[in-house]
Amino acid sequence: MLEVLGAILPFALGVSVSPVPVIVSVLILLSPRSRANGLAFLLGWTVGVAAVVAVLTALARYLPTDSGDGPNPVAGVLQLALGLWLLVLAWRKFRPGEPDAEAAVDPDTGLPVPELPGWMSSVASTTPARSLRGGVLFAGANPKNLAFAAGAAIAIGTAGLPVGDVVLLVAAYTVIASLTVLLPVGVHLAFPARTQQPLRALEVWLVRNNATIGVVLLLVYGVLLIGQGIGSF
Length: 233
Description:
By secondary structure, this protein is mainly alpha-helical. The chain has one domain (2-95, 115-231). It is built from 10 helices and no strands. It has helices spanning 2-16, 19-29, 34-60, 73-93, 118-121, 128-140, 143-157, 163-177, 179-190, 196-231. Helix 7 (143-157) runs antiparallel to helix 8 (163-177). It comes from Occultella glacieicola. The chain crosses the membrane at residues 6-30, 42-62, 74-91, 146-164, 170-191, 211-230. Pfam families: SfLAP. This is GAP family protein.
């Protein structure tokens, strides 16, 4: 079981450090109803992550079991396909463009101040119900998250473990994948007055570096899945 936990840990961390859900959670925590919205988004995110990896793991248990000392070409093909998919997503995400001449400039760094997309700007007026739905959608409908969950599900589902161990591994994946949403929400609930300035600084940094972080993650995990796929033959 510990070997499988080590195999799924990189995929859970890949979901956890994705910048977009962190940006959204920060924006929600800066909204007027931050406590209710933050808890609703965290609940939706956790449910979405758990549901996706649980369903994919249940399907992966029908794949040939990985004995550890022989090839598993079915799992290998799936891992290769997922890895190539992540590389395609990285290519599509990399869109170097010309800086906007009219964009505001940060006087401290001299860099353009990032402008939030319209859907992110609307988060400031969100409600708990919309935050809950948004958390589920961000966790479950994101192509990158689906690929990471599929990679973890293949590792869990083909390991031939009893149901109890599978449940524990799915729970561990869910907790780790939710850490970067859980931590800001938890700290803000505990220290609401002290978190305003750090959250705004984190928001600016994440929005500015969103594309770079996303491309690096997709490249690293795409290569990781391709390597695992090759090793399965």
